[in-house]
Specification:
binds guanosine-5'-diphosphate; 8 strands; GTPase activity; GTP binding; Rab_GTPases_membrane_traffic; P-loop_NTPase; Small_GTP-bd
């Protein structure tokens, strides 16, 4: 449960393509999951139940509300890593970052160092939370929990293994990040 009396907070979701960013967001905001990879560069803004066009085609933006009516979060995710690297728009005004890798893809874990660098370059004091997604794929797991935890500890960030498919820890991870953002803004 997220409590505060405040304003809009911007959260971005980043990590390699295919790690499950879009599904993590749709699982959290709409309790939906898709087996298809999100290759359609349409813009989706989820404003509660409405989807509206947005100016930047490569960015998807979700709007959710907290416990009190005046607490709002904008959750952005993008499938275009090039767009992300070349624009400050994605990072502008951001309060929190959900950084995601895929526990079945070693490369997405190795790229975390690079992602943290990019985040730090743009945002000096945004809160970061690390998610190792696809924890349901036990038999395909190549990044062990201890390595995920050790990386998070080395950066001083919170870590969850999660699954957008079976819902494990998605709500907990998001709510912890949102609450940390709210607390640090108060
Ligand atoms: P994005 O490019 O990071 O936004 O990744 P997507 O959300 O489009 O997901 C990429 C693929 O991984 C899709 O085929 C999803 O169905 C799948 N996927 C996403 N999350 C999970 C998960 O938690 N478990 C499993 N098994 N598959 C997932």
């Amino acid at each position: 449960m997220i409590r505060s009396k405040s304003k809009v907070s911007k959260i971005i979701v980043i990590g390699d393509k295919g790690v499950g960013k879009s599904n993590i967001v749709t699982r959290f905001t709409q309790n939906e999951f898709s087996l298809e990879s999100s290759s359609n560069p349409m813009i989706n803004i989820y404003t509660d139940v409405k989807i509206k066009p947005f100016r930047f085609p490569e960015i998807r933006r979700s709007v959710i509300r907290g416990e009190e009516d005046d607490l709002k979060f904008h959750i952005w995710d993008t499938e275009s890593q090039d767009a992300l690297r070349s624009t400050d728009l994605y990072f502008k005004g951001c309060h929190g970052v959900l950084l995601v890798y895929d526990v079945t893809k070693q490369e997405s874990f190795e790229n975390l160092e690079k992602w943290v660098e990019i985040i730090r370059e743009h945002l000096s004091d945004a809160k970061i939370l690390l998610v190792g997604n696809k924890s349901d794929l036990h038999h395909l797991k190549t990044v062990c929990t201890e390595d995920g935890q050790a990386f998070a500890d080395s950066k001083g960030i919170t870590f969850y293994e999660a699954s957008a498919l079976d819902c494990t820890n998605i709500k907990d991870a998001f709510e912890e990040l949102l609450q940390t953002v709210v607390d640090s803004n108060n």
